[in-house]
Amino acid sequence: MEQYEFFKGFHDISVADYQLLTDSLKPRSFKKNDFITVPGQIQRDLYFVKSGVQMSYFDTGDKIYTLAFTHFPYLCAIAESFSFQVPSKYHLVCLTDSELEYISYNELQLLINQSQQIERLFRRMTEAMLAGMIDLHIELRAMTIEDRYKTFCRKSPELLQLVPHKYIASYLGIDPTNFSKLFNNVMF
């Protein structure tokens, strides 16, 4: 029921509609370093994280740009690839062994057509994701590297132990050497 409470934070979905959604989910396991989606592939399934950490990133060949991390109780996908059923422009990889549950795009569309509550839930979650992306853009442009680091630590302290620091540094737009100094010297 922890995930149910998480969903209720976005929209007051009934237990019956939540059950309708979760009854449609199927389990899938991934090992550390397994790719869920790669550039050029269409994201056909939306994942609900049960355990593990995943990362989306863009690779230019000489540099990796970390875009997002997912972990329980969040959803996991290349959002625009899944939403519009178009090829992904970037990678989605498991940083740890991961247990996920998934629903296909077509199955989710049927549920959305069947339940206005499920439709509202996903609309509100999409709105929250958009707001989070805007907040991140503001942080990257207006905050010092120390403030970005402290904000990340307050929001996701568990990731400091689970994610290689070079990926967190990339996500925050901080040079890995400066990130190491912050990690060793700044209390949050």
What does it look like?
With 188 residues, the chain is α+β, with helices and mostly antiparallel strands. Helix content is 48%, strand content 23%. Strands 1-8-3-6 form a four-stranded antiparallel β-sheet. A four-stranded antiparallel β-sheet has the order 2-7-4-5. Strand 4 (53-59) and strand 5 (64-71) form a beta hairpin. The longest helix has 27 residues, at 116-142. The chain starts with a helix and ends with a helix. The mean pLDDT is 93.
Short characterization:
It contains nine helices and eight strands. The protein is an alpha+beta fold and 188 residues long.
By secondary-structure content and strand pairing, the structural class works out as alpha+beta
pLDDT below 50 for ≥5 consecutive residues: which ranges? none
**End-to-end CA span:** 30 Å
E-strand count: 8
The total count of helices amounts to: 9
Q: How would you name the CATH homologous superfamily of the domain at 2-115?
A: Jelly Rolls
- How do the SSEs run, as a string of H and E? HHEEEEEEHEEHHHHHH
Q: Sheet bearing the most strands, described?
A: 4 strands, antiparallel
Mean pLDDT: 93
The global form is: globular
Pick out its properties:
RmlC-like_jellyroll; four-stranded antiparallel beta sheet; single chain; 188 residues; cNMP-bd_dom; globular; alpha+beta; cNMP-bd_dom_sf; Crp/Fnr family transcriptional regulator; Jelly Rolls; 9 helices
